[in-house]
Structure formats: C-alpha cells, structure tokens
C-alpha cells in the first residue's frame, strides 16, 4: 500500500474576514442573495483571499461560484438556503451539471464553520417537474423525475486544488449532494450530511480525484453514501483515505462506480459504521474498463445491511460501439481492460436482515429488486475474460438470517446448475442481479487467488444451500473458516473448477 496521509488543504493563513451582509446579503430567508454573495466572493478573491462570513440567519441564494483563495465560513445558525425557483440555478457549460455552489479550476478554497447548506431539493425539483409539464423547461424526464444533471446539487467542485470542507451540515440536495471532480488535495472532515430529499441523493461523490481525506463524517443518504466514480479513461481516483465515518443508505455504503472508466488505486478505508443500508456495505465494481488495485478496508461494522461485500468485474460500457466509434475506425480505438487486484478487507462484523433494510425511509430502494432468498453475504464475481486477482478476507464475522427456501426458486450447486448461472457481464452491477444464488454465505466465481482467514459465518435458521460455493477459482485458501448453522452433517463448502491451496 503506497497510500500516505493527505494534509488538510491550505487555507489563507491570517487572511481577513469580510461579511456577506456588507455586500448587501440579507438573512431573512426571502431575499435572493446570489448577486450579493457573488460580489463578496469576487471582491475577496481579488484581495488575495480570505473568508466570506455568514452570520446567523437564512441567506437565500441560487448559483454562486467560489474563487481562488476564498473560504465561505458559516457561523453556527447560518444557513445558505437554496432558492425554490429552478431558474435561479446555472447549468454550468463546462461540467454540464447544475449546482448551488460551483468552483471550477480554482485553488485554496473552502467551506467551514458550524452552519448549514440546504438546497431545498424536494421543493425545487417538484417545481421543475411542474415547469417541464407546462412546456417551460426542456428535460428528458424518466419516471416523472428530471434528469439528475438539471437538478441542483449543494456543491460541485471541478479541477480544483487544495479544497477544505469542514464542520458544516449539508441538507436536501435536488440531485447528488456534493461532488469533487478531478480535484487534488481535498479534505472533508466533520461533515453532517442529510441527503434523502429526492432521487439520486448521494452523500459524497469523489470523481477522478487524487489525495483525498474523508474523516469523521456522518452521512444519511437516499442513494450511495461514500461514492467514488471514474468518468474518464484518462483519470482515476488515487491516494484516498476514509476513516471514522458513519453512513446509512437506501443504496450502497462504500461504492466504486458504477461509472468506472479510469480506475481506483491506493485506498485505505478505516473504522467505518454502516446501518440500514439497502444494498451492499462494500461494493467495488470495475465494469467500464477501470483498474482497481491496492485497496485496503480495515474495520467495518455493518448492521441491518442487505449485503456485506460485493466485488465485481464486467464489460458494460467498454465495448467499441458504446464509445460511438464506427466500424471503419475500430482499429484506432484504445480499449481498456478492466481489472481488480490486491484487495484486502479485514476486521469486519456484519449482520444481514431478513426484512428490507431501508423500510420506512424516504426514497427506499425498489422492492422488486430484492432477491426472494437472502443473497450470499459475500459475492466476489469476475467474468471469464477478466478475473478478480488477489483478494484477502480476514477477521470477518457475518450473521445472516438463513432460511433459504427451495420452494421459491431452487438454485442447486451441481455442475450443471452452476454452469447455468448467467454471467451478466454487461449489467448494472448490483449484488441482487442474479436473484437466487446457490450459497448463503459466499459465492465466488472467476477469481485467481482468494484467501479466507479467520472468517466466521452464522445462519440463524437452516438453509437448504451450502455456505460457500466456488466456481472457476484458482488458489482458494480457507484458513480458520467456521460455520454455525443448524443443519448438522451438511457439506458447507462446494467447489467447482477450483484449485485449493492447503
């Protein structure tokens, strides 16, 4: 592991404070302050940097752009309140996205304090739906929801250096909550995120960034909590530290992708707590040509979560035709080969429920996607062309409900049945995509080198399936693996096309 701790982004040392109210901003929750706030940012940046301070009150605003050397400081009781009017937000021509606070190609910027950024996302999104139905706003709505790029986030920073966002609360985005895209040297610390007011409400999105620390954050999200993406084949997320964070999600807890073109390298994820999470606690997916390498997860407590670990390679958006290339030009296309190798996940305690983990939350995950029998707690599935390589699962304890019922839809572990499980290599990667799988603890397929060391599986009710099923696995090691299920005498490990290292 080459990852080293990243220093907090540099803020202007000893720089002066200027107050937003001195530039005409009014904290009454009614007056639109976009022009006054932008004037304050422009002025402070021109002076060489400093803080624009927001005193207690509600500062209504549309889109503003943060510039070089400027930190927005929100005192306790101060709120940057998003306008409910969609026309008050800008869809930036460079990033083709909409946000309340943008920063594009700036340095030494930040947002600090104990105040709140609240986009009023549910209100602004529903106003947008109304305008679309009236023909006033052009949008390719799907399922009566506007495209996520047209709904404002709280924060979108692109190609910025030395970014510090600390202490604040971020609430109610209309799309993703906060995005850091191709940024370098980013510190996110002590954030409280309430991001479940509308569809696509991710908690924190890191896209193709380098040198990032996320620490001591609490995130409650309707979509993925800590979501790392790679939108470009020429960039990747590299040198990332996440530690001492808590998250809840109606999707995934810690996720790579699904847009995964460039890659994810040199991650260290430590001391995480995840609960009431609909999909997976940990999802690493390389389905669009990404390279995933040197990933270490050390210390996860996962409660009431639909799946614990999902590792997946695929071939979704890596095809030549999907790149928009004609048949004549195929030979000129550089096709990236997805890979996943050197993944270590250790010191995990997880409980998988029999019921829907996010029931009762705003914007739950879809009921129809749930498997009829509880899926294996661990799914590591490559594809025949692109195997997963080098996985260590160590010091892990998993409790599942068991009770798989063959009457619903039996999936046996015979060679014929295992061969019949579809590869689904061009599907959107989710642990439940296969519905029934033939194991209750771990399903392993197309892997070169995987070790289970000191791993305990416990089923609370008998299950007709074995605990571990392997298919096309090379160099499987089972060291100190235990099974606790009330099904005495049943073989808990079924191997097929597998070589075992003693």
Summarize the structure.
With 502 residues, the protein is mainly β. It is 7% helix and 47% strand.
Defining traits:
Pectate Lyase C-like, 7% helix, 502 residues, elongated, 32 strands, disordered N terminus, mainly beta, 5-stranded parallel barrel
Walkthrough of the structure:
With 502 residues, the chain is mainly beta. It has a domain at 16-201: Pectate Lyase C-like (3 Solenoid), CATH 2.160.20.10. Helix content is 7%, strand content 47%. The chain has 4 helices and 32 strands. The chain has helices at 34-46, 121-133, 406-409, 415-419; strands at residues 17-19, 28-32, 50-54, 57-61, 64-65, 70-74, 78-82, 90-92, 97-104, 107-113, 116-118, 153-158, 161-166, 169-171, 178-181, 184-189, 192-195, 204-207, 210-215, 218-221, 226-230, 237-249, 254-260, 263-286, 291-313, 339-351, 378-381, 388-400, 442-459, 468-479, 482-484, 493-500. A 5-stranded parallel β-barrel has the order 25-26-28-29-27. A hairpin with a 4-residue loop joins strand 8 (90-92) and strand 9 (97-104).
Give the SSE map.
Elements: E1 17-19, E2 28-32, H1 34-46, E3 50-54, E4 57-61, E5 64-65, E6 70-74, E7 78-82, E8 90-92, E9 97-104, E10 107-113, E11 116-118, H2 121-133, E12 153-158, E13 161-166, E14 169-171, E15 178-181, E16 184-189, E17 192-195, E18 204-207, E19 210-215, E20 218-221, E21 226-230, E22 237-249, E23 254-260, E24 263-286, E25 291-313, E26 339-351, E27 378-381, E28 388-400, H3 406-409, H4 415-419, E29 442-459, E30 468-479, E31 482-484, E32 493-500
Parallel strand pairs: 1-3, 2-4, 3-6, 4-7, 5-9, 6-10, 7-11, 9-12, 10-13, 11-14, 12-15, 13-16, 14-17, 15-18, 16-19, 17-20, 18-21, 19-22, 20-22, 21-23, 22-24, 23-24, 24-25, 25-26, 25-27, 26-28, 27-29, 28-29, 29-30, 29-31, 30-32
Antiparallel strand pairs: 8-9
């Amino acid at each position: 592991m080459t990852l080293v701790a990243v220093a907090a982004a540099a803020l202007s040392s000893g720089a002066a404070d200027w107050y937003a109210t001195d530039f005409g901003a009014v904290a009454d929750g009614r007056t639109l302050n976009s022009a006054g706030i932008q004037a304050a940012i422009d002025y402070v940046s021109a002076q060489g940097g400093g803080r624009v301070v927001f005193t207690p009150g509600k500062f209504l605003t549309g889109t503003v752009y943060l510039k070089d050397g400027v930190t927005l400081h929100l005192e306790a009781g101060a709120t940057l309140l998003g306008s409910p009017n969609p026309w008050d937000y800008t869809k930036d021509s460079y990033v083709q996205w909409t946000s309340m606070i943008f920063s594009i190609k700036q340095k030494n910027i930040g947002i600090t304090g104990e105040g709140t950024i609240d986009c009023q996302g549910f209100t602004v999104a529903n106003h947008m739906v109304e305008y679309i139905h009236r023909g006033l706003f052009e949008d390719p709505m799907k399922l009566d929801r506007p495209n996520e790029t047209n709904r404002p986030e709280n924060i979108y920073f692109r190609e910025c250096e030395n970014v510090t966002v600390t202490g604040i609360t971020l609430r109610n985005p209309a799309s993703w909550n906060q995005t850091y895209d191709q940024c370098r040297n980013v510190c996110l610390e002590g954030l409280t995120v309430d991001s479940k007011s509308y569809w696509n409400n991710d908690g924190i999105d890191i896209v193709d960034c380098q040198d990032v620390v996320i620490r001591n954050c609490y995130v409650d999200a309707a979509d993925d909590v800590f979501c790392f993406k790679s939108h470009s084949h020429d960039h990747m997320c590299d040198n990332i530290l996440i530690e001492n964070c808590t998250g809840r999600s109606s999707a995934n807890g810690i996720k790579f992708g699904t847009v995964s073109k460039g890659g994810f390298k040199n991650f260290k994820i430590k001391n995480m707590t995840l609960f009431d999470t609909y999909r997976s606690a940990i999802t690493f997916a390389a389905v669009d040509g990404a390279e995933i390498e040197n990933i270490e997860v050390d210390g996860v407590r996962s409660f009431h979560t639909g799946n614990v670990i999902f590792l997946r390679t695929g071939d979704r958006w890596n095809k030549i035709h999907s790149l928009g290339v004609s048949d004549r030009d195929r030979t000129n296309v550089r096709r990236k080969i997805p890979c996943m190798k050197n993944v270590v996940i250790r010191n995990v305690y997880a409980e998988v429920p029999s019921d829907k983990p996010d029931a009762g939350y705003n914007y739950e995950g879809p009921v129809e996607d749930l498997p009829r029998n509880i899926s294996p707690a661990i799914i590591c599935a490559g594809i025949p062309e692109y195997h997963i390589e080098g996985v260590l699962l160590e010091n892990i304890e998993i409790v599942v409900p068991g009770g798989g019922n063959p009457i619903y839809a039996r999936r046996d572990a015979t060679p014929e049945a295992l061969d019949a499980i579809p590869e689904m290599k061009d599907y959107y990667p989710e642990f439940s995509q296969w519905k029934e799988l033939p194991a209750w603890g771990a399903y392993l397929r197309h892997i070169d080198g995987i070790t289970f060391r000191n791993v305990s599986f416990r089923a609370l009710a008998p299950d007709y399936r074995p605990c571990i099923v392997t298919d096309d696995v090379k160099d499987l090691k089972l060291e100190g693996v235990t099974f606790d299920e009330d099904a005495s005498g049943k073989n808990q490990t079924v191997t097929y096309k597998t070589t075992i290292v003693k």
